[in-house]
């Protein structure tokens, strides 16, 4: 399966798309944000250091992310196809990733840009709720993504929570960081000839269908 690198502003639907692709194609979904949140939740002393950075919406150090990511990429399940969600976040990470894939023996694959207008992001971010047990994603501002029972996951019955950085204040920082540091990756991957663009402003299904076409074309 073709490896995918998702490039998108916060709230564009990277996580929702990655979960759907995982279900459909058995991809391994690697979210650096999830890996970092796991460190915080595990009570690891390192978690204490990065907790506030995550809550503010700033980026943690490249070195730490490389370490956490490389460890995950070395696990054998990654050979079957991965979706990178939340990495790379800047040019330095993209250049380092070119080296990491060589070292661990994986293909770079295709970079998928989820194109979306800024005005849609606030409602997506402030309405987002996640299941604390299975990670399923809901959105209180989207009638198609509401849980059947308020606060309860449809899939596993787990309780839903809101991420500490899913608020308008933190979104401002995260979006500014995206424009300044992550958006240059669009040219980086375009120049390598591996960029595909999809319109992420409609429903999760519409986004998924466009990405399925990209996967089909690569087969
Ligand atoms: P995400 O779940 O992708 O929205 O990431 C949540 C937070 O984790 C970000 O706001 C950053 O603080 C941190 N983070 C995730 N991925 C990276 C990365 N590649 N580089 C630096 N920080 C990251």
Describe, in short, the structure shown.
The chain has 219 residues and is of the alpha/beta class.
CATH superfamily of the domain at 4-116 and 180-212: P-loop containing nucleotide triphosphate hydrolases
Alpha-carbon distance between the termini? 8 Å
CATH topology of the domain at 4-116 and 180-212: the name is Rossmann fold
Which structural category do the helix and sheet elements fall into? Answer: alpha/beta
Provide the succession of SSEs: EHEHHHEHEHEEEHHEH
The average pLDDT score comes to 94
Radius of gyration: 17 Å
In the CATH hierarchy, the architecture of the domain at 4-116 and 180-212 is: 3-Layer(aba) Sandwich
Range of helix content: 40-55%
The count of β-strands is 8
Task: Give start-end ranges of low-pLDDT stretches.
Answer: none
Outline the biggest β-sheet.
Answer: 5 strands, parallel
Q: How many H/I helical runs? A: 9
CATH class of the domain at 4-116 and 180-212: Alpha Beta
Strand order of the largest sheet: 2-3-1-4-8
Tell me the overall shape: globular
Strand content: 15-25%
The distinct bound ligands, ions and cofactors come out as:
adenosine monophosphate
């Amino acid at each position: 399966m073709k490896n995918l690198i998702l490039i998108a502003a916060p709230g564009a639907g990277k996580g929702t798309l990655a979960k759907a692709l995982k279900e459909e194609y058995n991809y391994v979904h690697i979210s650096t944000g999830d890996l970092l949140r796991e460190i915080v939740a595990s009570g690891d002393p390192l978690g204490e250091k990065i907790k506030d950075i995550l809550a503010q919406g700033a980026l943690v150090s490249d070195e730490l992310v490389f370490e956490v990511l490389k460890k995950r990429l070395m696990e054998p399940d990654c050979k079957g196809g991965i979706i990178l969600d939340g990495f790379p976040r800047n040019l330095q990470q993209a250049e380092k990733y070119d080296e990491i894939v060589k070292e661990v023996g994986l293909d770079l694959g295709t970079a998928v840009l989820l194109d979306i207008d800024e005005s849609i992001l606030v409602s997506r971010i402030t309405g987002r709720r996640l299941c604390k047990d299975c990670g399923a994603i809901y959105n209180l501002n989207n009638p198609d993504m509401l849980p059947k029972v308020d606060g309860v996951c449809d899939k596993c019955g787990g309780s839903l929570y809101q991420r500490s950085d899913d608020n308008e204040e933190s979104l401002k920082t995260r979006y500014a960081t995206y424009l300044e540091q992550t958006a240059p990756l669009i040219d980086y991957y375009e120049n390598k000839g591996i960029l595909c663009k999809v319109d992420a402003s409609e429903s999760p299904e519409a986004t998924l269908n466009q990405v399925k076409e990209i996967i089909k074309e690569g087969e």
